Amino acid sequence: MIALKTVGHPASRVDALQRVTGRATYTGDLHLPGMLYARVLRSPHPHARVRGINASKALALPGVKAILTRENCDVIWGSGDSKNKRYLFNNPVRFAGDAVAAVAAVDRHVAEEAIRLIDVDYETLPFVLDQEEALKAGAVEIQPGGNLSPNNKGEPKPDGYAHGNIEKGLSEADRVFEDQYRSVHLNNAQLEMRVSIAQWEGEKLTVYASTQGISNCRIEMAHDLKLPLENVRVVCKYMGGGFGNKNQCHDFDLMAAMLAKKAGAPVKLEFTRKEDYVAVHGRWPTKQYYKVGVKRDGTLTAIQFRGYSGMGPYRKSSGDIAGVEMYQCPNVEKVVYPVLTNMAVSANFRGPAYPQGVFGIESLMDHIAYELKMDPIDFHVKNMTRKYHDELPYTSFGLEDCVLRGAEVFEWKKLWHAPGAGDGPLKRGVGMAMGAFGAPVGRSSAVIHVNSKGEYQLHVGVTDVGTAAKTTMALIAAEELGVPLAQVAVVSGDTEVCPYSVGESGSRTTTHTGYAVVQAAKDLKQQIADKGKPEGDEIRTGNATPDPAQPKDSARYAFAAHFAEVEVDVELGQVRVVKYLAAHDSGRIINPLTCTSQVKGGSTMGIGMALHEELLYDPTHGVPLNSGYYGARVMTHLDTPEIGVLFVETEDQFGPFGAKSIGESSIIPSVGAVANAIFNATGKRIKELPITREKLLAVLA
Amino acid sequence: MSKISRRAFVETTGAGLVVATSVPLTVQGAPSQEPTSPAPRTSITLLVNGTEHRAEVEDRWTLVEVLRDHLGLTGTKIGCDRGECGACTVLLDGKPVYSCSQLAVWADGGTVQTVEGLERNGRLHPLQEAFIEHDGPQCGYCTSGQLMSAKALLDHNPHPTADEVRAAMTGNICRCSNYNRYVASVLAAAGGAA
C-alpha cells in the first residue's frame, strides 16, 4: 500500500477545540427569541385504546400555548413504520411510552405541569412482550394482519436465504449440534437526550434537529408534513451521539414542527432520559435456534438457523439476525421472523443485526471447536467466509489476517487453555469472535470552493455524530488537493449550505461522502488547470455527486476479529475483562487517531452488552423497569479495560483511497469474544445475554 | 396566592436577574412577560468563573438550568437530569457536583467553575490540550463533565495513577465509550504539569 501525505496520518479533530471548550453548539444549546418548551405525554400501558382525552385543565394553565393529540393532529411519521401507518399520536397505544399528547408552554416547568393535568381515559387491552408468544394462535393482534411483520414483498412470511441442500448437508455430517441463544432489548443510550427546535417563517420550516443525517431528515420532514423540499431546512452542527437511533427524522421533530405551527412561535421539544430509553428505540431482542452439521475434521456441512426478533409494535428496521454469513458452508438455510410485540420499539443500534447474532453463532462455533478438540483459531481459519454467501468474491479480504495476526499479537497460544482449568476462585480465560460489516459504495455529494488566498472551503452535508466525519472529509480533501489540512475549512450540518450527504448510518459516510469529496477535489483541480488559480475576488468551485457501484458480482465488506481475556471470580460471579485486542480490516485507515477511538468505543460498548446491559420489563404490567443509565448498567470508566487496536489494512480499489467501513464493525465481535472467554475461564456457557453474575452463579454453584 | 407576573415581581422588588458587571444579561429561556406559574422565588448570588451574578431564581430551578438557560453557559450539558451520567459536572466550591442534582438556591453564595472557566487569558488548560491531543471527545457531549471531574482530581491529586483516574471519573458516563482516551488524556495532562 502506497503511503499518502495526509491520509493515514493521525490528526486531531478539526473541531476539537470547540469540543473541549464548551463552544460546540449542540441542538439543545440553542435558544430562539420567543421560544416555547414542549413535553410529551406517554402511555403508561403497553396496549390500550384511548377512549377520550380531557385537556381542558392543561389548556387553562397560564403559559400553555398549544396541545396536540390525535384529535387535532393526524400527521403520519413515515419512517416510523415501514409496514403500517404510524401516527405521531396513535390510538390504540401499543407500548408503554407511545405518545398520547404534546404540550408547548412558556417554560419547561409549565409544560411539565400541563402534561400532568391531561386526563386520558384508557381502556386497557391484552398485551404480549415475547416475540414467540406473539406468533402463537390466539395472541393479541397488535397491528392489522397479525404480529408477523411482512417481508419486503408485503407477504406474511419470514425473511431469509438458502443455498445448497440443508437435509443433504446434515446427513453428510459426522456430528450435528443443536443449540439456542437469546439476546435482550437494550437502549442506544447516547448521552445527548432527544431535542428538536422548530421554527416557521410563513410556509418555511427550519428544524434544529439532533439527527444522524440532515439530508434524510429534511427529505422525510418534507414528505411527512407535505411540504416542498425547498421549504424545509434542517440544521445540526454538533450532535451528541445516536448509534443508530437518530437516523432520519423522528416523531418528535414532527411534533415540534406541528406545535410551533399551532402556537405561532418556535418550539423546543425536550425528552427526559426516561423517555429517551423507552420512547425511541433500542436493539431488538432475539431468540436464535441453530442446527449445525460438521465433519470430524471440522469442515462445516450445514448451517440451519431460525430466529425471532422482537420489533416492538412498529417495524422501523429489518430485525435481521446476522452472523451465519461469516461462515463458508455449502448448505445454509436461514429464516428470521421479525415479530411485533408490545415492548419498546426496536430498530437500528450500532451494527444492527450483528452483535447479538454473532454472539449466538460464535458461541456455538466455539463450542463445536471445543467438542472437536480444535483450537478455535484453527476452526475459524478453516471455516471462515472466503466468498459472500459462498458465491461472490470480496473486493478485498482481510478477515484471515485479522484472525491470525490478531491471535499472534494477543498471544492467544499462550493464553488459551482447557475450559475451566485452574482452581480459582479467580479463573482466567480467553475467547475470540469474528465480525463482518458491509462497506458498499453509493451516492453522495460535495462542493469545494477556493479563493485567491488558497483557502479551501469544503461543503458536505455530514453532521459528525462523534465519528470525526468532518475531520475525515477534510483529510480526504487535503490529500486529493495536495494542500495542508489547515488550509481546508469544513462547512457542514446545514441543508441550506450543504449538498446531499448519505446519513451517518450504516457506516457509510467515509465511503459515500468521502468519495464525493475526492471527486469534487478532482473537479476543482481540473478547473484550476483550465482557468488558472483564482485571483483577486475570484472563487473557483468544484463539485461532484458520484453514484459509484462496485461490480455486481462482488461484495464489499469490512472485517474484524476480537480477542478477550476475562477474569471470573467463580465464588462471586464477577467478570472482569483484563486484556482485549480488536483487529480490523477497514481497508485504508484515513485517520488512525480517531479510527482507533471508534474501535475502542465500539469494543467497550460490546463488553457492556455482553455483561450487564438490559432493559428489563415487568411481565405482569408490561412496563420497563430500569430505564436510565443506572438501572440499565451501561459501561463506566471503572468497567473498561485497555482496548488494544490492530489495523490490518487491505488494498481495496473502491471508496476514497481504498477506505472501507469502521464504526459499526467495532461492536460486532466483542460480545461473542467476551462470552467465549467466560466459557474458557469457567467451562460453563451462558446462552442468554447479558451474562450477569446471577446467571453465572447459577451454573457455577 | 394571587398570580403575579415575573415582570411585575421584578419591577416591584428590584431584585431581578442582573449581572454585577452591569452588562445587560440576555435571559435565555426566560419566561415571556405574561402570567406563568406562581412558583416561589429566591434571590441568590453566584460567583461563576470569576464573575458575580445576582439572580432571582425559581426555587425549583436546578443549578444547571440557571447556568445554561439563564446565564448562557451552555458548555455544561444535561445528559440525564437525574444524577446518573455526569455530563453536567461543575465545580461548586472546588468540589465536583452534578449540577442537575443541585437546586440553584442551595448554591447561594457559592463559587462555581464550569468548562467555560478552564481557559486562562486565552490559553487552554493542560487538560483541554491533552483532550485534543489524545482524542478525548468523540461526540463530545460528555466532555465538559469529564474535564471538570478531571480538574477536581488533579487539583487534589496532581499525579494520579490510571486506576485513580478511573475511580475519580467513573461518575462520568461516555456512551461513545472513549474511556481509554479520557484516562490517557488525564495522565498526559498530569505528566505535563509535573
Q: Give the CATH H-level superfamily of the largest domain in chain B.
A: Beta-grasp domain
What proportion of the residues of chain A is helical, as a percent range? 25-40%
C-alpha Rg of chain A, in Å? 26 Å
Count of helical regions of chain B: 6
Number of helices of chain A: 18
Number of spatially distinct domains of chain A: 3
What is the mean pLDDT of chain B?
85
Mean pLDDT of chain A: 97
Question: What key attributes describe this structure?
Answer:
heterodimer; A: 701 residues; alpha+beta; Aldehyde Oxidoreductase, domain 3; 3 domains; 7-stranded mixed beta sheet; 5-stranded mixed beta sheet; 18 helices; 26% helix; B: 194 residues; Ubiquitin-like (UB roll); 2 domains
Fold and architecture overview:
Chain A has 701 residues and is an alpha+beta fold. Chain A folds into 3 domains: 16-24 and 441-544, Aldehyde Oxidoreductase, domain 4 (2-Layer Sandwich), CATH 3.30.365; 31-125 and 191-241 and 246-278, Aldehyde oxidase/xanthine dehydrogenase, a/b hammerhead (Aldehyde Oxidoreductase, domain 3), CATH 3.90.1170; 282-440 and 552-700, Aldehyde oxidase/xanthine dehydrogenase, molybdopterin binding domain (Aldehyde Oxidoreductase, domain 4, 2-Layer Sandwich). Chain A contains 18 helices and 28 strands. In chain A, the strands form 8 sheets. In chain A, strands 3-4-1-12-9-10-11 form a 7-stranded mixed β-sheet, with helices on both faces. In chain A, a hairpin with a 4-residue loop joins strand 20 (446-451) and strand 21 (456-459). Chain A starts with 15 loop residues before the first helix and ends with a helix. The mean pLDDT of chain A is 97. Chain B has 194 residues and is α+β, with helices and mostly antiparallel strands. Chain B has 2 domains: 6-117, Roll (Ubiquitin-like (UB roll)), CATH 3.10.20; 126-193, DNA polymerase, domain 1, CATH 1.10.150.120. Chain B contains 6 helices and 6 strands. Chain B has helices spanning 6-13, 63-70, 126-133, 143-156, 162-169, 179-193; strands at 18-19, 41-48, 51-58, 89-92, 95-98, 111-113. In chain B, helix 3 packs across helix 6 (179-193). Chain B is globular. The model of chain B is unreliable at 1-33 (pLDDT under 50).
